[in-house]
Amino acid sequence: MAFKSAPPAEIIPASPEEILLTLPRRKIPGVLLHQGEILRNYASGAVDAADVGLQLPTGSGKTLVGLMIAEWRRRKFRERVVYLCPTRQLVNQVVEQARDKYGLTVLGFTGPKSDYSALAKAQYQNANHVAVTTYSSLFNTHPFFSNPDVIIVDDAHAAENYIGETWTLRVQRTDSQHQALFQAMCAVLNGTLSPLDRSRLAGRWDASPDDRKWVEKLPTPDFALVADELAAVIDAHANDLNIRFVWSLLRGHLRACHLYLSATEIMIRPIVPPTWQHAPFNGARQRIYMSATLGAGGDLERLVGRFPIKRLPVPEGWNRQGIGRRFFIFPENFLQTDEIPAFRTELMKRAGRSLVIVPRDQLAEEVTREVTETLGYPVFDALAIEESKAVFVGSNKAVAVVANRYDGIDFPGDDCRLLFVEDLPKATNLQERFIMVRMGASQLYDDRVQTRVLQAIGRCTRSLEDFSAVVVSGEELPAYLADHTQRAYLHPELQAELAFGIRQSTDTTIAEVVENFDMFIDNGEEWADANNQILAYRSKATQIPFPALNDLEGIVRHEIRYQILLWQNDYEGALGAAESVLGGLADANLRGYRAWWHYLAGSAAWLGSKDGLITLEAKARGHFAQAKKAAVNVPWLARLTRFEAPGQESQTDAQRATMEQVERIEMVLTGLGALHDRAFCAREKEILEGLAGANAFEPAHVLLGRTLGYVADKRETDASPDPWWLSGSTCFVFEDHAGATNDLLDATKARQVATHPNWVRDKVPLPAEATVTPILVTPVTTMKSGAAPHLNEVLLWPLDEFRGWATQALQVLRDLRRTFTAAGDLAWRAEAARRLDEAGISASALHARLRHQIASHVLREVP
How confident is the model at residue 464 (pLDDT cuts 50, 70, 90)? Predict the structure, then answer.
């Protein structure tokens, strides 16, 4: 056998722009003007930067730009280059595009590393070809790609789902494999939680359906107390579970992490992913982040744990161009909730192929079952289309249903013309949800949420010539898109599309909307007239920046430094970094985020004081006190009171309870939707009609309590009372005597209501300091003499007065709903708390209203 001759030397152009011209199998003549511009900018000003951000809008040829930079660096510097994609489907798509369109050979690596071919591995290691693989192939504890020189991160906006998850431990109650560990962790945490929160964590939701949305954070001092015990518990289980790799990364750094709770999950993670600990990522000479939306206000830096990132400017003109055309349909504007599935089915018939994006696996199963039973179309899940879309695209009638995937699945051109987005949770994990909703610091995520929305609604419009109908429904997403104040932050093209869609979905019928859909899909002259309306609106629309972005961008380097120092157990240094963050948070919109960083500063100081730096204890107490002052409408911060110095001013128990009540009202209003008031009106009608009679009085009474922000319930068990309402440490337990047949209260009924507090204390998870007040709701005005001794501790609420109060209370809620946009608005919370107190709806105000109406004094005694 003859020795192999050496391959010819590779051509190394002066810039990545010229690489394409060296590829004889290419199917395109060269790079476009805007692509050439960004490639030249990179070559002239970013080759030596450690971290580079390239923002290239959808449809502008981002993949070509990334591949040309990758191939140029591989040839010029003989570097090992890894090009990262979110999914295997996108890996295959990039490899295919490189080969068939650009004439470039790159190597795709998917699946377990044991399946990688020896030749492909050698070709990558010797820098003979660029490797294309998934995020997860790099971000794991023992990656094959252990020493890349250059990492190109495509769809960098998705980094939270892949990079952040590397350092996120999730233990889920609903996962059968996690149940034993979840229960063991609950046993450790129980001593740090209130009785009600223990009940929520255990998944007992009978107190209120809104408890399903509950999110809690264990304060750092409490977490530090139980960290060793928790670690021992996790150690005993981790090796047998899918959390063992994540746990190996977090095990020695629990003090640099935070613990969050919900009714289905316990989550432990740091606030910023410590990518500096991941040698393959940190050791690369350069990391390039590419996205249609890199984010503003330092969001990319927070997502990837790196600072500084040199951003190259968007090519001239692209920031003013929209991508394709979307026809938005809001079915909840003209249909009842139970009518939407039939409407969805009708559109699917007309479209042939459609894509449905849902936030949960359970909802995906429901939609799949509905499509199978009503249409008989084949249904493709995310796994089925991840390797290839060919079967789906080749079917004339098919539906793709994917859960919790808002990016990385593209259907351009004729692939799919109909997209259903069944809601989009603003927060993708408990940390985000806690900071947005409980801390009232949603401004931190404004840009990130907008990016997720744009990615979700753009799955079928990936280039200028694409067009797709987008049907939006659910709790949060329709309200987000329909909010005219929120729309001002969107691209003018999208503002125009939304305004047009909302107008077409209002005061209309199914037949009219279906007819409009047909005209849109036909894309003929009739649609051209409608399209002109969108263009006219676009010409008048302007996009404004989110507030406080300058402050957020200015502090991100200190936020990352805080996490680095905390990871190294340098608590004094971390405290200094946190105080630098606070020094840059001047914008009034960032009160909640300022409170959060006072808490984080206090946490670092507290940990330092327990680690021997005694002088930091006063710092810790001072920052905890400042956290509460910075955001008085955040009731969670009251949990820090016991860590403050004696004599510090604090909110009263009543004020904290009212703010917690306001938080629960936020959840109620979010669930009822802000797009229209039909759901609120239906709830109002159900309550008022139930209270007007006797048969449905008790269920309506429970629903009224929950709607007004109380934790309310009624259990049908032996000797149980009628509804009970709980807010803070105040509990009202009711005896509903609405069906009284005469004007006389007997001793049996009096004894019954007087003993209700005993049942509540035994059966309901109450705070240790709780007061339980029995209340009799009745139309009667007299009582038997034998009843009087049992009514000395019972308050009387005349039935007509109760009904009038309920009507007025719902009117207050209706007034507050008009200005409600989303949970976590601290200004709205302050106004809501004031209105609840004024109207006698808060627990303290309601008790003050009724406390003089002692039943034994008000009812007239008869023999």
Answer: confident
β-pairing, 265-269 with 169-172?
antiparallel
In eight-state DSSP terms, residue 580 is: H
| Residue 701 contacts residue 714 (beta carbons within 8 Å) | yes
Instruction: List Cβ neighbours of 852 (8 Å cut-off, separation of 6 or more).
Output: none
DSSP tag of 243: T
Burial class (CB in 10 A: 0-12, 13-18, 19+), 856: middle
Q: Are strands 150-153 and 286-291 parallel, antiparallel or unpaired?
A: parallel
**DSSP string over 691-706:** HHSSTTHHHHHHHHHH
Give alpha helix (H) positions in 673-798: 678-692, 697-707, 747-763
Calpha distance 103→359 (Å, rounded): 38
Alpha carbon distance 35, 699 (integer Å): 63
Q: Extract the tokens encoding 637.
A: 């911060």
Q: What is the DSSP letter of 854?
A: B
pLDDT band for position 212 (cuts 50, 70, 90): confident
Q: E strand or H helix at 782, and its extent? A: strand 782-784
| Helix 799-818 × helix 653-672 angle, to 10° | 70
For the stretch 671-726, pLDDT in tens is: 888 777 888 999 999 999 999 999 999 999 999 999 999 999 998 877 789 899 99
Parallel, antiparallel, or unpaired: how do β-strands 418-422 and 379-380 relate?
unpaired
**DSSP H or E run through 860:** strand 860-862
**Residue 725 pLDDT:** 97
3-state helix, strand, coil split of the chain in percent (to 5) is 55, 15, 35
Largest CA distance in the chain: 122
Q: Which of 84, 88, 85 is nearest to 384 (CA)?
A: 88
Whether the pLDDT of residue 744 is over 80: the answer is: yes
Q: What are phi and psi of 103, to 5 degrees?
A: 70, 30
Residue 29: how many other CB atoms lie within 10 Å: 8
What percent of the chain is modeled with pLDDT above 90? Answer: 73
Angle at 797 between CA 795 and CA 802, to 5 degrees: 150
Best CA proximity match to 161, nearest among 199, 126, 125, 134: 134
Q: Look at residue 319 and tell me whether its pLDDT is greater than 80.
A: no
φ, ψ for residue 217, nearest 5 deg: -125, 135
Backbone angles phi, psi at 202, to 5 degrees: -75, -10
pLDDT exceeds cutoff 80 at 493:
yes
- For residue 399, is it left (φ>0), alpha (ψ between -120 and 50) or beta? beta
Question: How would residue 384 be classed by pLDDT, with cut points 50, 70 and 90?
Answer: confident
What residues contact residue 556 under an 8 Å CB cut-off, 6+ apart?
297, 298, 301, 302, 307
Cβ contacts of residue 402 below 8 Å, gap of 6+?
Answer: 355, 356, 357, 358, 364, 381, 382, 385, 409
- The string of DSSP letters for 126-187 reads TTSS-EEEEHHHHSSSS-S--S-SEEEETTGGGHHHHTGGGG-EEEETTSTTTHHHHHHHHH
User: CA 503 to CA 507: how far, in whole Å?
Assistant: 8
The answer to whether residues 613 and 847 touch, using CB atoms and an 8 Å cutoff, is no
| Amino acid in the structure at residue 478 | P
Q: Rg for the chain (alpha carbons), in Å? A: 30
Mean pLDDT over the full length of the chain = 91
Identify the burial level of 860 via C-beta atoms within 10 angstroms of its C-beta, where 0-12 means exposed, 13-18 middle and 19 or more buried.
exposed
Peptide bond into 274 cis (omega under 30): no
DSSP 406-471: -SS---TGGG-SEEEEE---S-SSHHHHIIIIIS--GGGGHHHHHHHHHHHHTTT--STT-EEEEE
